[in-house]
Amino acid sequence: MSTPELRRKLRDFWKEWDRVAALRRQIVSNEDLAERRALFFVDTGKIPPPLILPKFPEFPPECEGMTCGAKAKSTGEPCKSEQLYRNGRCKFHGGRSTGPKSLAGKLAALENLRLGREPHRAAEKT
Fold first, then answer.
1. Contact at 8 Å (CB) between 27 and 33?
2. Is residue 59 part of a domain?
3. SS3 label, residue 78
């Protein structure tokens, strides 16, 4: 199986995992269901049957041992890291942004935030 197909399969796995996790949270936090279970206990004196939660999908066996594969700028060699995020890349090639570090970068980010809140205007012609 080609690398893009493996990455697609990994993304699909995490989408399904997120869907099942949201469904499980919804079932567990359902107040109506909790009230019915409590009334069952009060009426019968028996513990209600356990909640049946959907199972999480199994990790695709083809994706086990998958490497990051991002190419280094300096050598052109693919990354061999096997510790991947959900996007199929390692922490060096697909992790979260750490944000601006310098004072100038932080000020530029604040300015971009301010500009993003204003409505866009057509460029003035001179």
1. yes
2. yes
3. strand
Does this model's pTM top 0.85?
no
Number of domains in the chain: 1
Domain residues for the domain of 38 are: 1-63
SS3 119: coil
Which of 88, 112, 108, 77 lies closest to 15 in space, CA to CA?
Answer: 88
Nearest Cα neighbor of 88 from 7, 4, 18 is 7
Name the token pair of 97: 């942004």
Quick: pLDDT tens for 69-116.
888 888 889 989 888 888 888 888 876 777 888 999 999 888 888 777
For the chain, percent helix, then strand, then coil, each to nearest 5? Answer: 50, 0, 50
Is there a domain that residue 117 lies in? no
- Which ranges of 45-102 does DSSP label H, i.e. alpha helix? 91-94
**Is residue 83 within 8 Å of residue 91, measured between CB atoms?**
yes
Report if residue 99 sits inside a domain: no
Report if residue 69 sits inside a domain.
Answer: no
